[in-house]
Amino acid sequence: MVFAFWTLTFVLMQITGNLRKMSTKLVSNIPQYTLGLRDVLDPLESIDMNALIGKPIRLEYEGYINSVISGEKMKKAYGEGLTYKEFMESPQASPSIMRPELSQIHEGIALRDYEWEVTHHLQPHIVYISLTSHYKVGVTRDGNMPYRWIDQGATQAIVLAEVPYRQLAGLIEVSLKEHISDKTAWQKMLKGVVEVDKTIIEVRDEMATLVPPELQRYLTNNQEVTEINYPVEQHPEKVKSLKLDKVHVIEQKLVGIKGQYLIFEEGVMNVRSHAGYRVTLEV
Fold first, then answer.
1. Closest alpha carbon to 263 in 52, 15, 19
2. Which domain holds residue 253?
3. What is the pTM of this model?
4. Measured in whole angstroms, how far is the alpha carbon of residue 197 from the centre of its chain?
5. Pick from 227, 249, 273: which residue ends a domain?
6. What is the dihedral of CA 272, 242, 268, 271, to 10 degrees?
7. Are 280 and 272 in contact (CB under 8 A)?
8. Interval 117-140: pLDDT, tens
9. Domain boundary among 181, 196, 227
10. Average pLDDT in the 263-270 region?
């Protein structure tokens, strides 16, 4: 199936490579997005996606995926661009990624890969409150701010706690789940719908009182709120997900970017969930 709403008369840029999630930086509260296309595992090209907003682009899926770890060619990926074996064995898909409370590396116990978990999980982490379409609690490594917040489409974020290793952050998150969501309602987030009746500082302070006594020493009094304004010309009224497995060619105007989603006139595409997909991009 092809979604075509315009015809290319000439091509300014044509690049083929394997998709990776967009890298970001925050400049004057506006995320600057760079799309990386790699030739299997070798760096190939980085594309300034903010510069393409308001322009028609053509994205064609070449029909196969290369693992983001090994480069192995496959028809179906698991997790974010992994083979089934990698998904079951790689630390990048460890259960402690989605459930930080399961991490035991601070006790010298690795769930999958000792060195990797020391590097990524035996490091300072934060627990934060962010605003997407609603307030949510989340966990990330200390050096991942504000990138984690941008990836989830948060418009505001504030730090709740700072801890020395991942499991502690997970324990705080778990203690708050019955009081505040830990999920992003991605469709409402893309529509720009916000359902709140308190400020983020009020919510952070309320959540702080609900953290178990033995974990309260990790709470922070930081009052800094990060504000994020996404480069979106037009929020979708109805969110239609475009998946390259079903729609091999997307030819539409890019009207915005939020989180890891490219927002087109007639649908949205999650770049992160297409990691490893072999594509050709034309502008």
1. 52
2. 2-83+233-282
3. 0.91
4. 26
5. 227
6. 10
7. no
8. 999 999 999 999 999 999 999 999
9. 227
10. 96
